[in-house]
Input
Amino acid sequence: MPIVVQKFGGSSVANAERIKRVARRVVETKEAGNQVIVVVSAMGDSTDDLIELANQINEKQKPQAREMDMLLATGEQVSIALLAMAIAQLGHEAVSLTGPQAGVMTESVHCKARIVDIRTERLQKELEAGRIVIVAGFQGLTANGDIATLGRGGSDTSAVALAVAIGAQVCEIFTDVDGVYTTDPRVVPRAQKLSRITYDEMLELASLGAQVLHPRSVELGKAYKMPIHVRSSFNHNDGTMVQEAEGDMEKELMVSGVTYDMNVVKVGLFDVPDRPGIARILFTALAKAHVNVDMIIQSAMHNERNDISFTVGQSDQEVAVAVVQQVKEEIGAGGVIYDDKVAKVSIVGAGMISRPGVAALMFEAISEEGINIEMISTSEIKVSCVIVAEDAKRAVQAIHRKFELDGLDAVNCEGFATA
Amino acid sequence: MPIVVQKFGGSSVANAERIKRVARRVVETKEAGNQVIVVVSAMGDSTDDLIELANQINEKQKPQAREMDMLLATGEQVSIALLAMAIAQLGHEAVSLTGPQAGVMTESVHCKARIVDIRTERLQKELEAGRIVIVAGFQGLTANGDIATLGRGGSDTSAVALAVAIGAQVCEIFTDVDGVYTTDPRVVPRAQKLSRITYDEMLELASLGAQVLHPRSVELGKAYKMPIHVRSSFNHNDGTMVQEAEGDMEKELMVSGVTYDMNVVKVGLFDVPDRPGIARILFTALAKAHVNVDMIIQSAMHNERNDISFTVGQSDQEVAVAVVQQVKEEIGAGGVIYDDKVAKVSIVGAGMISRPGVAALMFEAISEEGINIEMISTSEIKVSCVIVAEDAKRAVQAIHRKFELDGLDAVNCEGFATA
Output
């Protein structure tokens, strides 16, 4: 009997009514002839409530990571017990398992542990007994016997890891949206839902802001070739299948998606002395300050001094600028500029690898709108441009049109999640 | 270094401020030169909140006991993590352990499991590392690897069991009251706090209504001779030490306590044919209906018919009366009466074993008040009388005086817990 892993996030189990709806969905899958493992997150805002409690206790110093994990793991444990009860109400046998009980073994690190192994004995036993197995996402057990949580994207990662370990046919990730779109339907009403997308494309899209699926889980899916079906918890439509590139897949679309990210600050250090090691000094200093740097552009000028610019998220702006000011003094650069009125617009597509001119087509779309490009960064399957923030949506619309991604029907964009 | 186990109930950890107060108390004990294991219950009403959630899900049928345990166990897990954080804020190393992590092994029964073993490896390791160990009360692990809760009195029982397993010097149970009193200070302002009491006396007092300590934990303490110190979480006074009878202990007090219980219904079946097996038929029928019968009196009359009467708690009244009505028809008894305007007044004391006339002294105290005794039941260290409810407090006062238990000072009865 095929095994299906289904993952439901916190908003899908936010209250008793929603838990009952998830239970019906799970039972349908079981009655369709599958063995089912369900991974759930903590109910709605319950994790925030637990964090608030911890904040009331920890006035002087940060709480110990181990104890935060002990605390936060209760959130998913509540969800799994309630979902198991709701399934039993529908006349099916269900059993809930904490991450540790489900055999999810992690590194001995807290709050951001990685899964190192899944011991499937208990899962196998429960499936063989005909039960629907409900597993607490986001958590596992360290070699010391402690509870560890997986950090951001943890529940998606739990689901894909369980699917891989148990040999599931597919891992279904239920979200508020119908799947992965060619772009944000709120900006381009004729954005199209992609029926298929490669892991690499999804990785680029995920880190660019289409927050339907966390990159960690996509990486895991890619490593073990586990098909991930991103679909809506509100309807039964097919969503987007994230999977290996197939023979004909590349041909379909040169560009799979157009994304934009408004959470960008451009920081520039100009008139930098042109000698080896400058970039190392700058980016080591930023890394030490825990600044997450995204795009980096170094442009060699005709004279002996040049400019280095990079982008960071808005929350890192203050620290990044302070670090760059200090580096400026140290190395004797000309000055520092920063600008938070910018946005990043990107195209992603495995199809562009074998097709020259894709980037040029994007630049053409932008320039036709009279928009100036401030920074450009490219990877094998992605091209990103930093432009003035207020032009971002117009640029996305132009690019979407230029690559002939506009569908015939306008998309209902209610609930569409973006960066 | 001596090991002390300290147990704090749900009201002691009901919010962040109270958790911090418990943390200070624990740290004091550690700094006084002890190794400390702390057992805590779920915060305040959090268990009720979880039950309410489960009720919203389980409309058609009762939830599975296993899943209720999965759900309810989160309550204590939240408390232990927060208390460990609060202790760390005070500069001490603490580690929280769930019941399963602490090695508390239970029967494979849910919602009312009994502890079968405690595997102390992890506890030992953490204590040797100099840490204060915080354990979730009320929960353990079955041989199947499932979480089981211990049912009523579970946290007290966890604490005493851990104290026994680890070889603690004493198990301290912190409550809202100063200790165990000779009677309810709200009825007799000159009630005295008992400095010592035997396990047997405490067992009789506990089941009679002095709800400071659950009988299960007292039984466990008695079996392994673990001293249990019942004391206030609001001050540092010595409370009541529950321990083995010592040589001079018996001599101290003929009667240790006077209790009363208003939650009593008297049910009588009269004109019962005097033939063997009638009592068996009646009490088997009551047991099948899950009626918890307390006192049983059968009085043989001069003729060939007699009366059987018994007491039950008020919640069992309806079922009990219905059962007795049916038995009446079956065996051809004369009639059924019941009365819920009664109360049970009792004296408890290991000292009465070797002293004849203790029961008579109690009857004398009651009759001097002009109060009629409706039923009498005695055990080795207890005498109980059923009387009219409105006379109960006057009877308690008279008995307390008769046995010379009145102290010199009136007790501050605020927060005193009674049945």
